[in-house]
Amino acid sequence: xxxxxxxxxxxxxxxxxxxxxxxxxxxxxxxxxxxxxxxxxxxxxxxxxxxxxxxxxxxxxxxxxxxxxxxxxxxxxxxxxxxxxxxxxxxxxxxxxxxxxxxxxxxxxxxxxxxxxxxxxxxxxxxxxxxxxxxxxxxxxxxxxxxxxxxxxxxxxxxxxxxxxxxxxxxxxxxxxxxxxxxxxxxxxxxxxxxxxxxxxxxxxxxxxxxxxxxxxxxxxxxxxxxxxxxxxxxxxxxxxxxxxxxxxxxxxxxxxxxxxxxxxxxxxx
Length: 270
Prior knowledge:
Layout: H1 5-21, H2 28-31, H3 37-53, E1 58-64, H4 68-74, E2 80-85, E3 89-91, E4 96-97, E5 105-114, H5 125-131, E6 132-142, H6 159-164, E7 169-174, E8 190-195, E9 198-204, H7 214-225, E10 235-237, E11 245-246, E12 252-257, E13 263-269
């Protein structure tokens, strides 16, 4: 069974309510076992339109499931994507309240800010790098408005659930350093994430499809199929190169990047 257009709108409204009340909802894939990725993106788009109608502004995109290990775990062969809105964007060291999240986790990424549009199914790595104004360190805060594990069976959610849930995005924390693409060996940019003084995760940006800009190549090509494109000024999260680490009130995170990208700090407050 697939969701109808009316049901897609209802699922989007359920996500809107779940985020506002911080009360998780059951997996859509359980109710609609024939749900496709296109259906899931339709739910995501409908939810984001509801948020835009409530006064929020689109500022870019996030790309997820970029590592081979995560794709195998999700039983897919390509990444997924979500929309970034202005209220999701934060700065390193800014007051970070856990009150707006349900079960947040943090991932290490790089953010790309575009200086011109990227359009077309033939987009290349060079096109993305040429269109990038600068790259900045960034952390993605992921969350789950849809249960990660079914409340009864403990079955993990499917990729259509994650895509519907805006590819799990909840917030972005941006660092202070901005670097142009020229002269950077991006696949070898590394980071070490410490939680409460202990190193939890390390990784290289090459874990993102071999090169962090390749996620943006994928996104530009996917959007082109639907007559859409990346726009000048967009902030694009290129994909995580560490596993997600749980966050709780009182936790303190610091993420140190190589290649002069500096550090991002987060204190999880009530």
